[in-house]
Amino acid sequence: MDDSQNELSARDARAHFAEVITRAQGGTPTIITRNGQAVAAVVPIEDFNALEDAIDRYFAREADRDLAENPDAPTYSMAEAIAAIFEDEPDHGVA
């Protein structure tokens, strides 16, 4: 796989999986395509963690802002929030 290449078909990514992982370890993301459309990315774990942290900070700021604007609003535990998300989705129940 050419070092300048950052996009691979799913078939090529499978054939060169070790190289895709090595590129991610080296800081280079690889976009995986199927039928010419980007469907996934293999990214360095540091990039993934940074994105997750940014999302968490964003939602925490939004929650703090909402609570400051309406301090009498009900609050929910994480377990209650997750249960509410999945309560109408029977495929996500515990087996």
Short description:
The protein is α+β, with helices and mostly antiparallel strands and 95 residues long.
The low-confidence parts are: none
- Number of E strands: 3
Largest sheet: 3 strands, mixed
Strand content: 5-15%
Derived from helix and strand composition plus strand pairing, the structural class reads alpha+beta
Q: What's the number of helices?
A: 4
Strand line-up in the sheet with most strands: 1-2-3
Question: Which bin fits the share of residues in helices?
Answer: 40-55%
Mean pLDDT: 90
Number of domains: 2
Straight-line N-to-C gap: 43 Å
Order of helical and strand elements = EHHEEHH
Radius of gyration: 20 Å
User: Can you tell me the overall shape?
Assistant: elongated
Pfam family, one: PhdYeFM_antitox
Function: Antitoxin component of a type II toxin-antitoxin (TA) system.
InterPro entries: Antitoxin_Phd/YefM, YefM-like_sf
Organism: Candidatus Protofrankia datiscae
Question: Mind sketching the topology for me?
Answer:
Blueprint (H helix, E strand, L loop, with lengths): L6 E3 H6 L1 H9 L4 E5 L2 E6 L2 H25 L8 H9 L9
Parallel strand pairs: 1-2
Antiparallel strand pairs: 2-3
Note down, in words, how this protein is organized.
- By secondary structure, the protein is an alpha+beta fold.
- Helix content is 52%, strand content 15%.
- The chain has two domains: 7-43, YefM-like fold, CATH 3.40.1620; 46-87, no CATH class.
- It is elongated.
- The relative contact order is 0.09.
- The model has no long low-confidence stretch (mean pLDDT 90).
